[in-house]
Write a structure and sequence with these properties.
This protein is of the alpha/beta class. It has a domain of about 70 residues. About 35% of the residues lie in helices and about 25% in strands. The chain has nine helices and ten strands. The chain has a six-stranded mixed beta sheet with strand order 6-7-8-3-9-10, sandwiched between helices. β9 and β10 form a beta hairpin. α3 runs antiparallel to α4.
């Protein structure tokens, strides 16, 4: 069974069609890269998966459970949306850390809030888990530092740890290196590569073509709100079939 099934997703903003009938699926442990020019709908697709936007049509299923179906669903309550978001972790391009909290506190915040609603969560283990994630990110020594005391690469690694803290089924990245200089980009891509080696299921919106080709199992090329081409990442990036894909990738040669 696929871990993720996305069928016929559509999203409009006013009269503008941003997503036009998007369908794809993923297996557990897959890494999927989504590539395409700015304005092609990549970020909107991630936001629909994470319920930061509500699709106008289509369906989303995780592990066979229907999270959204426009033909069945009444409007979702805020509580329902919060629960559905737990299936996905989202790492933003601009980190979005809370400046008033330390690295450790940023990671602990969402699980501790969730624990207030779910008595099954053992609050006593939250800090231990957060410290283990910081260690995984190579940031054990930075637990007590505030975001302004961290480099951009360190902030993004804290953001990745924060997204992992809720044990999501699928970890999503929205251009995770676009706000970083080349040296710091390498830090973050190394962490994502290590997560891929551990069979973490991930969707990565990226402009790093060589990384997408080498780390991803599959790639999707989007343009104008549609999927133009999808398949094994090496095939899509090294030997695209569609003329529009070839044109886009020619800029990265």
């Amino acid at each position: 069974m696929s871990i993720l099934e996305v069928k016929n997703i559509k999203k409009n903003f006013g009269s503008t069609e941003v997503l036009k009938d998007i369908s794809f699926s993923m297996e557990k442990g897959d890494v999927l890269s989504i590539i395409g020019s700015s304005g092609s709908g990549k970020t909107t697709l991630l936001r629909c998966l994470n319920f930061l936007e509500t699709p106008d049509a289509g369906s989303i299923s995780v592990n066979g459970d229907i999270l959204f179906d426009s033909s069945l669903s009444a409007p979702l309550s805020e509580n329902e949306i919060r629960k559905k978001r737990l299936h996905f972790g989202l790492v933003f391009q601009s980190f979005n850390l809370f400046p008033q909290y330390t690295a450790l506190e940023n990671i602990c915040l969402a699980p501790s809030l969730l624990a207030k609603e779910d008595p099954a969560i053992d609050v006593s283990t939250l800090e231990e888990r957060a410290n283990a994630l910081l260690d995984q990110m190579g940031l054990s020594a930075k637990a007590g530092n505030y975001p302004h005391e961290l480099s951009g690469g360190q902030q993004q690694r804290v953001a990745i740890a924060r997204a992992l803290a809720l044990n999501p089924d699928i970890l999503c990245f929205d251009e995770p290196t676009s706000a970083l200089d080349p040296e710091l980009t390498g830090e973050v891509l190394k962490v994502i590569r290590e997560l891929a080696d551990k069979n973490t299921t991930m969707i990565i919106v990226t402009h790093e073509m060589s990384f997408a080709r080498d780390v991803s199992d599959r790639a999707i090329f989007m343009d104008g709100g549609v999927i133009v081409e999808q398949g094994p990442s090496k095939q899509v990036i090294d030997d695209p079939k569609m003329e529009r894909t070839k044109q886009f990738l020619s800029y990265y040669k």
